[in-house]
Every structure is written in structure tokens, then in C-alpha cells.
């Protein structure tokens, strides 16, 4: 890279911002003698413009007398462009451009540097590498507050009975939801022994509450049976007359 050419390229008026960028990029790749040979694609990648746009602006720079282009044969028979920056005596954007019949070949650069001379360039063909971009992580949405069934205890149920019921539902994998709590509160509303209803369901491993199965006056959850009650001992009263 020639710092002198870079400064001159920045001060040179070319009449187009993209053309100015191409000229600066050529100066960035040039030796102190103003010689470089970057590919169209390399300049396009560096300037972030199309390859055809680079070709067009280099032709304009040549017409303005700021760049001289020569073709050179490659080792495999392919030809590449050799650029000579002539910023020491630029034509300028208002000067008459080089006509179509002109070869576009200007004076040889200082020092007798020609196509056969030893060339030094800081330009290398670009190596395509994946560009890693850091994507800002989207702010995580606030998690919904986890519902605590203990805060939804029916008014006529004791705290201990309700805590036992919540624990029971959690252990059997049927956690209480807010909707379920509200429905069960309506089920127990006005019942004479709501704690007994809950204790009955816990004892039997039920997931629901069945207040109709608890007899009036029950405290531990005595259930109503359709068949005979084998716990009934009133038959013993009849033995006294024997």
C-alpha cells in the first residue's frame, strides 16, 4: 500500500462517490510505483458493489487519465489486467476524456517499471471465508407467574385440610389449577363438613370432591353406601334381649 497514492486518491475529484471508492481501493493495493493487479471481484468485494459496477468505474477512471490499464498473460494462458495509477498529473473530471480510438496507454511510470519489471503488490486474491455475525438475542419473555393453589382456598375449608388436598393432587400428578379451585370452592360452598369431603377424597385417592357422599355430622369423611354398611354395629343392641 502506498500512503502517498492513498492521500492523492482521496484528494482527487472523480465526479462519483463509488468511482472515488474504487480509485481509493486501487491505491490501497498499489505499490509505490502505482502498480497493482487486483481482480474485478476482489475490488467488488472490498467496496461491496457489483463486479459490473467496478468494471464501469475503472473504465471511467481510465478515460479520465487517472488509471492506465494493460493486459498481461498469465502462466495458464489467461489474461489479467495490470493497473498503473497516474495520480501525479491527473486529467481531472472536467478534462476531455480519452477518445475511443486511443489505446489508453499513458507514459511509463517513473523508474522504468514495465510489465517485465519486478512487480511488488500488496494485493492478494480474496479468500472466501464465512462471515460470522453476532445476532442479538431477543429478550426472553417473562415467564408467567406459577399458580399457587394455596392462595385459592375456599372460605369454609381449614388451611390444613386445603394444604393436604393440594399436596395430594400434586402427588398424583393432578395439580390444581385456578379454574379447578374455583369450581371446587363452589362445590364445597354451604356444605356442613367441607374438611370431611376433602379427607374422604384423599383417603380414597380420588381426584375430585364428592360432598354428597359425606353424611351430615361427619368429621372424617364417612361415605354414603348403596349396599350394606359393614361398619354398622347397631345389631349388637338386639343381643341384650336374649
From TrEMBL:
InterPro entries, per the entry: ArsR-like_HTH, WH-like_DNA-bd_sf, WH_DNA-bd_sf
Region of interest (Disordered), ranges: 93-140
Coiled coil spans: none
One Pfam family here: HTH_36
Domain of life, per lineage: Bacteria
Any one GO biological process: regulation of DNA-templated transcription
The protein, known as: Helix-turn-helix domain-containing protein
Species: Pseudomonas guariconensis
Classification of source organism: Bacteria, Pseudomonadati, Pseudomonadota, Gammaproteobacteria, Pseudomonadales
